[in-house]
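Input.
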Amino acid sequence: VQLQASGGGLVQAGGSLRLSCAASGRTSGRIFSNNAMGWFRQAPGKEREFAASISWNGGSTTYADSVKGRFTISRDRVKNTLYLQMNSLKPEDTAVYYCAAARRSWDTSVTSEYNSWGQGTQLTVSS
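Output.
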């Protein structure tokens, strides 16, 4: 499966933005229908960290404490697209955001459970 993230940009603190991640390829339909998906982010000079995950059917979600209450992950199984709605953005949210497909059906924050990664999209939040 190929994952293509988009929607990043420059936004002021307190603003909102929505990231999208489109899945394509021969196995995209099967994976998007059966596997959990997640968003991770990597700030300059820091390691990649978990942000949010959603189960195969969208019925269960997990969030990092740093984004809980501000970010919402969702998925459209018809369009094979994953979303991350980000509200009340802070300068510390500045990072490259990556979408990923897990090797399991239920949401997880464990990085090693993800085996397909898209290229990142840059989010910059100005103060």
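The chain has a mean pLDDT of 96.
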